[in-house]
Design brief:
alpha+beta; Bactericidal permeability-increasing protein, domain 1; Bactericidal permeability-increasing protein, domain 2; 2 domains; eight-stranded antiparallel sheet; 7 helices; rod-shaped; Lipid-bd_serum_glycop_N; disulfide bond; glycoprotein; Lipid-bd_serum_glycop_C
Length: 473
Amino acid sequence: MMLGVWSLLLLWGLVTPCQGLLETVGTLARIDKDELGKAIQNSLVGGPVLQNVLGTVTSVNQGLLGSRGLLGGGGLLSYGGVFGVVEELSGLTFEEVTLPKVSLKLLPEFGVQVTLHTKVGLHGSGPLGGLLQLAAEVNVSSRVALGVSARGTPILILKRCSTLLGHISVLSGVLPAPLFGVVEQTLFKVLPGLLCPMVDSVLGVVNELLGTVLSLVPLGALGSVEFTLATLPLISNQYIELDINPIVKSIAGDIIDFPKPHHPIKVPPKEDHTSQVTVPLYLFNTVFELLQTNGALDLDITPELVPSNVPLTTTDLEALAPEGLRKLPPGQQLLLSLRVKEAPMVTLQNKKATVSIPADIHVLSYLPKGTPEALFELNGVMTLNAQLAPSATRLHLSLSLERLSVKLASPFSHAFDASRLEEWLSDVVRVAYVPKLNVNLDVGIPLPKVLNVNFANAALEIIENAVVLTVAS
């Protein structure tokens, strides 16, 4: 497993950063370094990292200094040497590690430099008796490589860690100058082994968050979307870039394949202190294809589904095209059967999202206790405007009818101009069909999970063949 990780890291180091073109149909995520810093800080606040580190140290030592500590019999600075007075100082142990402040710097084509500024507290007995309390400021500096794990997820790997000891304060008690030097040298020896494991623990928590990129997101009764990495991660001075491949599957497990774009998507630049996700046209089209293949776009419209002010009888229909429809039985209710036999097409361009749905519209006379009688058939195309709204994990769509065009499809005893029915049919579609369609679209377009970035308040921009969501870090 480790050989695979190092091979991927070596290959990743040869990759050049993206120039703003998304060649694949994937979802492009650019995660600002501020989000990584937040993830590291939150792992220290919410997790047991500090407690684990402190517990490990205090459970294995009986005091850093003194006859049984690091300076006693065979310790780091054994008793009897230059600092013979050390036997008067005993039982000095670590009691607390202050919550570190995190700062980081992205290292292009390598990974991240993480610095943790913290304080450690030491308690013990002073050489003159009484309680001795010390506090030492420490910077923990580490270089972390970014690569791909054997599971196919982004992973941070600790490559080098060192500590820099800062100011040491005596909070309580008395510590003579010679012993102060002993404590300082001891801390230089001890701190790397104490605090560098904390970095490893932090990376473990962050890697769990990065691992959520590889996830299976359900689409209700339609199917699911599985996110995987399409290419190796890239890194710039300000952000980590992930090209994430969404694999859409039907409820039966079949992969829904849609043509790749003829031209790469030109992704707009990302501003500092923001994170960005680009949702490709592919995802929109595949969701609508799932709706079509599941029959979720088909609907039988009966008089019960429309308000009383929308006419749905043969008498009303005759009035719209009297020259061709005079042979209809008068006063009978109508049934409109909409059937979508081809996948709808989504268009994303000019800051606008539209959906085109081709539908066969069968017009029948409707007898509640009888068998509907076919009157004629229309070929129609519904063009709908899509309003887009992001939530934390999805991009939601709400459709409204812009126009409906129809033409006569089936032979009819008297030919007539079907376009005269378009206004009436549009009213029916608006009140009966579009609301049902919006309910089925409630599944939304899934967004990849990266470091728990919340896109609920993201700014939304529709570009050519994609939607870009940008959220401040």
